[in-house]
Amino acid sequence: MKNLFPILIIVLFSTCLYGQKPSKILLVNGYLHVGNGETMQSALIGIEDGKISLIKNSLAYTVEKSDWDTIIQLNGRHIYPGFVAPNSTLGLTEIDAIRATNDFDEVGALNPHVRSQIAFNTESKVIATVKTNGVLLTQATPRGGVISGSSSVMAMEGWNWEDATVSQDDGIHLNWPESIEHAKWWKEDSKTQKNKDYEQQKREIYTFFETAKAYSNTTKNEVSDPRLEAMRNCFTGKKRVYIHANEIQQLNDIVDFAKDFKIAFPVVIGGYDAYLLPRKLADAKIPVMLTRTHSLPENEADPIDLPYRLPKLLRDGNVKFCLQNEGDMEAMNARNIPFLAGTAKAYGLTEEEAISSVSLWSCEIMGIDKMYGSIEKGKSATLFVSDGNALDIRTNNLFLGLINGQFVTLNNTQKELFEKYQGKYE
Question: Does the domain spanning 4-81+386-424 belong to CATH 2.30.40.10?
Answer without folding.
Answer: yes
